[in-house]
Amino acid sequence: MDKLKILVVDDESRMRKLVSDFLIKAGYEVEEAGDGMEAIDKFFADKSISLIILDVMMPKMDGWEVCREIRRYSKVPIIMLTARSDERDELQGFELGVDEYISKPFSPKILVARVSAILRRSSQTSNEDSIEEGGIIINKSAHIASIDGKPIELSFKEFELLTYFLENKGIALSRENILNNVWNYDYFGDARTIDTHVKKLRAKLGDKGDMIKTIWGMGYKFEV
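RE: above sequence
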């Protein structure tokens, strides 16, 4: 089986080497870019890139611009790295369709674990490829969601979250449960991460967004 390829984008060569070394050790193939423009060129020249690790602060074109440009054409998973621990930055990342957001300094082992979790979930297929509840249809193998036959644009994480809700219809799900299953790792951050994703998902679902019920002090439940 061919190795999955990851594009590591950071203007600091030492950071690129650190991340790349850990990824290669974990069995991935790595492509590197030292600035945003180089990242754009390499991504669109190589259709085999499975995930992007993207630094925010870079010359020529910053991470936000790179993410915005890629999201116009692709839903490839993106992990954003930043030296700032700023809630506004995190929210902006999620608005642009970032799948994970990690503040520097970070543990390279944790980063690799998150990479593995995202790639594992994005490549999973099931014998039950389609789920339909209340007019919402999920095609897991094609990674397509639609409402009453009309496709809707979801980020990778929004799609996984909606799938998890549909698969657990009528079940009260705590934030911890959702994070550990959708993000697929032990999450020690702020629960606002999931609240932000749910808010965006509800907006994209329109009237169907009301099916995602808030359980105050606990989490959420999907009800038709």
